[in-house]
Amino acid sequence: MKGISVTPWGVYSVWYRHARVYQKTWLVNSLPPLSEPIIYLVAFGYGLSPLVGDVTYHGETVSYLQFIAPGMIGIGVLFQSFFEGAFGSFIRLKFQKTWQALLTAPLSFTEVFLGDWLWATTKGIIAGSLTGLVAVMWGIYSGWHLLISFPLIILGSMLFGVMGLFAAGTMRTIDQINIPLFLFIVPMFTFCGTYFPRETLPPILENIANFLPLAALVDLLRWPLGLPNFWFVQLIGLLLGIGLFSGLAWRQIYPQLFR
Fold first, then answer.
1. Which three-class secondary structure state does DSSP give residue 251?
2. What is the DSSP string of 15-32?
3. Which of 59, 29, 75 is nearest to 193 (CA)?
4. Neighbours of 72 (CB within 10 A)
5. What is the pTM of this model?
6. 121-164 pLDDT, tens per residue?
7. C-alpha pair distances (Å), 95 with each of 81, 89, 118, 254
8. Which of 129, 141, 160, 187 could cross-link 135 (Cys pair, CB 3.0–4.6 Å)?
9. What is the rounded end-to-end Cα distance, in angstroms, of the chain?
10. What are phi and psi of 59, to 5 degrees?
11. Which of 102, 126, 104 is nearest to 11 (CA)?
């Protein structure tokens, strides 16, 4: 029962512990990653908009700024939740032994696992929401649209956070985390329709990009400009991804603590 029992208080206490640690150095640690998608939005918005002009999306002509704003929200979610799940959890698991220390308290493995996952999810939500607020203040994504899109930001943060946990449980050295970073995260960042419509890619690249989870998240966040034809399938795909990677992450981390 030590491994599987769950109470909301147990999960919250793990999340709160991480939040308190983060609070001590929040400015140093949060400024670079949180500012990254916002800088992309401002830089590409001002830099490329005059060159690109308008973009055709689902048969409608929209400004380039309106097109990339949801992509920047998705990137904020991706980077913050995955990096916290991968690097943050790896350090707490392998170097600081925080997981082992928490398990000496009256906490189960599931509570520690969910608390870590919840913390990675929280950081993705913060990054996605702040980027969205910049887009709202800029007038390229309405406040109501951001509010309605909030469940999608949570969903994306949960998925990329647990993918990060899977990486943390699978990799044996911290340098190995660069493998999923460069083979999976960077291709998603560049090919999933964040900066340009995927239809401009060669067919084989477009088909590969269509199956990557960031493509589904960005398409769904772009709903004010038009829903994709298979939006329901994409939504189910994100949910299935959460279920799949949570099971895989659990199976990778649990044996390292209970041998």
1. helix
2. HHHHHHHHHHTHHHHHHH
3. 75
4. 30
5. 0.92
6. 999 999 899 889 988 988 889 999 999 999 999 999 999 999 99
7. 20, 10, 20, 16
8. 141
9. 16
10. 80, -5
11. 102
